[in-house]
Specification:
The protein is mostly helical. About 80% of the residues lie in helices and about 0% in strands. The protein has 15 helices and four strands. The strands form two sheets. Strands 1-2 form a two-stranded antiparallel sheet. A hairpin with a 6-residue loop joins strand 3 and strand 4. Helix 1 runs antiparallel to helix 15, helix 7 packs parallel to helix 13 and helix 8 runs antiparallel to helix 10. It starts with a helix and ends with a strand. The C terminus is likely disordered.
Length: about 400
Amino acid sequence: MEKKFMSLSLSNFLIAATLGLFLRFLYIYPTSGFNFKFLTHAHSHIAMLGWVYLSIQCFVVGWYIKGSIKKYKRLFWVTQLAVLGMLFSFPFQGYAAISISFSTLHIFCSYFLAYYCLKEIKPTNPANKFMRWAFLFMILSTIGVWCLGPTVTQFGKSSPLYQLAIQYFLHFQFNGWFLFAVLSMLLKILQIPNSTLVNKVYKLAIVSTILTFAFPASWYLDVSVLFWINTLGVLLQLVMLYYLVQLLCKPLDSYLKTQSVLVKNLYRFAVFCFMVKVVTQIFSCVPFIAEQAHLYRNLVIGFIHLFMLGIISSLLFAYFHRSLKISSLFCFKWGAYLFLAGIVATELLLFIQGLIYILRLGSGLPQYYMWLFIGSVLLVLGILMLLISVLQSSVAKINLNTNSETT
């Protein structure tokens, strides 16, 4: 895929991060004339659908598709149009006619992308199998979006079913589409062959992803069996993590020996965040903690950012580095490190503040919102430097069907 498409995806990320920074600013200096919820919708949609989605599309087309990519280029531009439509409508009207129209356009673009890719990506190796399931989870997640209209009409936005539909979409977007896609790319880079161990990871990942939806569902449905379904899903996810470490340990170690310190740190940081994500889900099996996690927004935001920034975005940056001839190494290096520093700072603040409230240890951290704003500045500066570096780079010629690459 061409550099301009990667640059546009990263530009979307910069816009989403800047919106997030402005939301932090509004906590420090409340300003009239802005609807906080509408801006939050814009921030989340551009981050998910403009940054992660389009970045994955770039890598799928560049690494998995062997034939003509003209239709994928056209599809990218239509999808980017949908992203821009959401950017210029959500901040002013929230969920209304224009923003819903562009969101719907994005969904239909995702269906076309899934149709094209599922036809071309055959389940002949582990990377392809994970990518196919990534697209299947993406399609599955949109059922939640189609349920929003009927639930609003019948029960209203405050109804549990409306919130359940949103959580359904988010769960299978994050844990299905996004996670399976970036794992597939990692398997492709490492040239992991078919094996019994791969099949264990593959099956456990699918089943645990489906079962752990019971956790957010339990927030809105008073059904006791959901607790046990989630517990089973979490246990299977832990087993999956054990086998995944066995599968990737040696190949990843061998691959990283040939990489720069920066790339090593990006991978290690993403792997660490993934392990933290899986292990912390154990706490969802404790009823008191599960209830508190839903009540305190800091913990929810912290977990989402751990996933989106720590795991998905860190891996995508590593893949960007592999796909481009980075001419401004200084810019890319310090952009990445500023970004990682911003993640660490904001995550610590979010989780410590949440724990203080849960454990009733006081009123919270002093100057909490100011420090959170400063941490978010690091994220924006990091993304800006990464974007500048990408704009100054050229596309590398990579052959992922062998263990060689030409730059």
